[in-house]
Amino acid sequence: MSLFPEQASTFASHVDALYGFLIAVTAFFSLLIGTLVVVFAIRYRRRSPDEIATDVHESGLLEIVWTVIPLGLVLIMFAWGASVYFRITRPPADAIDLYVTAKQWMWKIQHTDGHREMNELHVPIGQPVRLTMASEDVIHSFYVPAFRFKRDVVPGRFSIAWFEATKPGRYHLFCAEFCGTRHSGMIGWVYAMKPADYQAWLSGGASGETLAAAGARRFQEQACNTCHAEQKGARGPTLVGIFGKSVRMQNGQTVVVDEAYLRESITNPQARLVEGFPPIMPTYQGLISEDGLLQLIAYIKSLSPAPAEGAAAAAPTPTERKPAKP
Amino acid sequence: MSTPAATAPPEPRVHPVNYLNARYGVKSWLLTVDHKRIAILYLIGVTFFFAIGGLFAALIRLELLTPAGDVFQSETYNKIFTTHGVLMVFFFMIPAIPGVLGNFLLPLMIGAKDVAFPRLNLLSWYLFVIGGLIALWAVVHGGVDTGWTFYTPYSTVYSNGWVVVTAVGIFINGFSSILTGLNFLVTIHTMRAPGMNWMRMPLFCWGMYATAIIQILGTPVVAITLLLVAAERLFHLGIFDPAQGGDPVLFQHLFWFYSHPAVYIMILPAMAVISELVTGMARKPIFGYKFIAGSSVAIAVLSFLVWGHHMFVSGQSVYAGLVFSILSFMVAIPSAIKVFNWTTTLYKGSVSYQTPLLYALGFIGLFTFGGLTGLMLATLGLDIHVHDTYFIVAHFHYIMVGGTIMAYLGGLHYWWPKISGKLYPEYWSRVSAWVIFIGFNLTFFPQFLVGYLGMPRRYHAYPDEFQVLNVMSTAGASILGIGYVIPLVYFFWSMRYGKDAADNPWGATGLEWQTPSPPPTENFPVTPVVSGRPYDYTTAVEAGARG
Amino acid sequence: MAEAAHTLAHDAPPELQHHFVDLEAQKQASSLAMWIFLVTEVLFFGGLFTAYVVYRSTYRPAFEGASNLLDIKLGAFNTAVLILSSLTMALSVWASSRGRKNLIILFLALTMLLGGTFLGIKVIEYKQKFDHHEVPGPHFVVPENVATGKPLPRQAEMFFSLYFCMTGLHALHMIVGMGLLAWLIAKARRGAFSIRYNTPVDLVGLYWHFVDIVWIFLFPLLYLLGRHTL
User: Fold this and answer.
1) What distance in Å separates the CA atoms of residue A152 and residue A144, rounded to the nearest whole number?
2) Alpha carbons B280 and A172: distance in angstroms, whole number
3) Residue A141 sits in which domain range?
């Protein structure tokens, strides 16, 4: 019986190596302490009812030694763990986008070309994949043990994380944050495929409307173009080419336009307003579904040239934004 | 600690009136202000909740024997594990050692007649009972299914269970914890006997002091958090509901700000017990007294700085992750210091193999192992994979069950002669210690393995390949359950049929051993005066120790 | 010092509880206990203040707009009332330390009167909110910006959630305080307080001052956001 899940992503072996180191440290100290206490208990067992022990009761040197050595060890663990963590939390620039909507109790996945999947995810190997995830109700968590990939999907914000599959195969997908009655039924499969097989899969079957096209349609339906029009004097800033650009806000801050900023602009527009425009945009919080938000954002992204998308993807650390925080 | 012989003539020991028989009748117990009687009341209460929580654990393990969710419906199963968690965490783990051993021993150990506020102490017990009964009412009327962590918006908007009632029960119980902490803190500051300065205080008292700091500072935060959850559910407020602009992760920050220090409320008293057991059973002064005392306080302080390690995958920023990770490693260091000091205490000791020692050794081994798996969780790159899997479940059960419950049982055995005036049967106590140790490891070690393989927690049904490890775990749980029942039986048995205990059956130091077994209501007819070093065995053995 | 401090019943002052060595030790212990309790209260309110800080920084315009809807005159008046009540409370502590029964009762009664005034005004304010549909929940109607007449952002509801939670919790503490004051008056009438012993008045005084201080934080945070004119 295997003790490790398959290593099917670029970070799996790093995580397992780190685990191996920690197992070694754990085993060493557990055995050390376990052996010592047993050996001492036997060697120094009480030999007569009134026996008491000689007084060996403190040593400053010993205290320092056994404080400093563990301190050194934990610093190594921290540093190694942090380096693996940086690898896990930094999507590379050339990642392709996938959009995940979690709802009780299913996973809906949308590929940019319009392919929709339910509780299944097909990905090519050797290609970084960036998941932009949203929840329609409660907190869920997208967990693929074979990839050592896990990220909570929190309602009210986008959760963005990435992986790169390395081995073709079929791997468990679990929801890993308790979400109600059918939490343990919110499972599925991730299919990692060789590039040729993946292309074959993509071209087979109806793909339907692309995400961006759906977003364009919604843009019209919600009358966003009333203000965000491509003309001089428009009431709202132009959205063409805006994704990935640095824009100045009214409070003097400069913001790089990414998915999180776009989402915030739709649900809480007054938070950060672009300089030079009146504060008249209404909030659409609760009025557009998570799917709808993902579509709109895919549409707006499609209005920018592709390199801009890569630049945004490589932006350092939190690409997800939340209400300001501890 | 030695009481200079010239000061107090030995009290006559012919059938003394003690705190157990001083007054009879239910009212004399339910309206008592004697800390020792209140300790017994807590003993009854926590045992009751432990039994129910344990029953629900058995139901969990029963369901998990097979991959399919075929014993209970999903929603029922969710209520079962939630109830197990709520009852065990809030109504057993938090109150047990402080309520039972802390209450009984603290005044005795510092040479006081009682705690600073005896009536407040009784109120604490009533708050515990009322809170628990309210939580039980919720259980009986359909239960709550949110997990003991009550994450929003599931708990505030989507759950169909008795969330508000359970939250109220926990809220009321929280005040029990706060008042106990307050009482112990003031007692230690103001009621130590003459000569009992801080550096002469038993390490058990240092542990209770550090615990009190956490109880006082942490519990109010979970209180307001649960109040907000209840308000949100009742009045549709939206503080944690994204649909109304709320932030579910804010709930997590507020919840874990208490709930992480809470686990130190559970372990510090256990460590306090172990410090006493190790020195007492080895009849050797504790090694590194100052470092163990200092570690207790360091743990209490650091425990408030690490809560974010429960939230590494929640979407909090990478920098927050780094800060909480490094601090989580830091909080492990004082615990390691304690383990090394306990181990070294045994070196050149005079170690007796009686039951309290078995529990102490079990604790040291299991806590060390479980604590080291905690380092795995502090490691950012690794926690992402194992968060919310059975790996986490295994880790905290190693600490809470392999750690705290072992220490609690060890302490019960060690002080049972003082508490009851009787001896428990040594043969059966050793048997049950081994049964518990074996059953425990068989139950929880496989959970590390199945967790790393990817089995998420709170799962009603699971993929077939996880079954073998789950079956092992359930088998272990059956054995563990038996191990817990045996002491219940013989402790009762001993009250009627056990041999009478001497005042100081272990030849230990400490003022509690200078009183009769069981002690009189007022503890010390003459206030003791303390001098000399703590844990000075040279005089203790002379006072009629048993081998 | 080797002698046990074993007070015999008829020697000890009636207020001394048997497990304390003397009245001074009892006073110190009680005082420490009340301070610790107040620390727990800081943490208790602290959770709400944390939520407030987080949401105010996220929804600043909504919070400023909603804050302008609160009646600043009533709020300021209430602040003055509470500060005055702290004065009368302090005077009652002083009077109790001298055992001046009539003064104790007078000042305690004045404190209660002022506390009652505060609560009465809060009832008026809450009723106003209710009438204007500013109570969060299913009946909430997004209010209009006072200056511009345009609707505020939806997250104004969050402001009101925090407003009701924070002032509501504070009001509950005031009500408990009123109960404690009534209890003190009853004790004072029985002649319980003297130069030797006024601990209960002292400790209730600490509690009352604490509740006052909480309001002094609540008032600017809730009533004075983004105010340019009264």
Assistant:
1) 12
2) 52
3) 1-41+59-208
Question: Is the interface score ipTM higher than 0.90?
Answer: yes
Touching check for A278 and chain C: CB below 8 Å?
Answer: no
Could you give the number of structural domains in chain B? 1
What is the predicted pLDDT for the residue at A288? 87
CA separation, residue B480 to residues B348, B428, B438 (Å): 33, 15, 8
Average pLDDT for C91-119: 95
Domain ranges of chain C: 31-223
C14 Cα to chain B: minimum distance (Å) = 17
> What number is the average pLDDT over the span B195-215?
97
The CATH number of C31-223 is 1.20.120.80
d(CA A297, CA A312): 13
Reduce the DSSP state of residue A120 to 3 states and report it: strand
Q: Are B306 and B260 in contact (CB under 8 A)?
A: yes
B527 closest CB neighbour out of C5, C39, C51? C5
- Partner residue opposite B224 with nearest CB, options C17, C47, C157: C47
- Residue C8: list chain B partners with CB under 8 A: none
Interchain CB distance below 8 Å, C18 and B186: no
Residues of B in contact with A4 (CB under 8 A): 452-453
**B4 in a domain, yes or no?**
no
* Among chain B residues, CA nearest to C19: B113
Residue A158 lies in a domain: yes
Which residues of A fall within a CB distance of 8 Å from B452? 3-5, 19
The string of pLDDT tens digits covering residues B346-356 is 999 999 999 99
Q: Does C146 touch chain A (CB under 8 A)?
A: no
d(CA C161, CA B237): 6
Q: Which of B60, B306, B380 to mutate: most A Cβ within 10 Å?
A: B380
pLDDT band at residue A189 using 50, 70 and 90 as cut-offs? very high
Contacts of A21 in chain B (CB under 8 A): none
Q: Tell me the pLDDT tens digit for each residue of C120-149.
A: 999 999 999 999 999 998 889 989 888 888
Mean pLDDT of B264-285: 97
Beta bridge partners of A101: A108, A134
Tell me the CATH number at B266.
1.20.210.10
